[in-house]
Amino acid sequence: MKRSTKKAGSNLNKSRLSGKQRAFCREYVREWNGTKSYMKVYGVKSEDVAGASSARLLRNVRIQAFCDELEKNLEKTTGISKISVVLEHKTIAFSKAEETKDRQKSLDSISKLLGYDSAGKLELTGKDGKPLIPQVIKIEVINNRDQVKKDEQK
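RE: above sequence
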């Protein structure tokens, strides 16, 4: 019987990895630290053993593919979407119970998530529709009382 040579898809990756390997991948994508992820999933106490073992796992093509898939599908994997983050920040931003600094941080986060913080470009045009040419205008500030006295003396 001939073995299939298809590229490893998401279902193949899951089926060829053990439960612990899948758990390691999920933890690794969350932490981006192979040693800590290995220690947590496999219950290893030694950092040296965990470091060597995690490095070996991360060289595995199937592990790499599953980690890549998890990273690409973070929204599905975590169950947290951009809209849910915005809604949570909205709750904080408009809550009377929160401190002002926390409310401001949430408003800033909402602005960034929605792209409101990006720089905009404004082009001013004249009546003819052509761009205005910048000109230097000299403005002289005078004290009104002094000007009135000068006018009265004339």
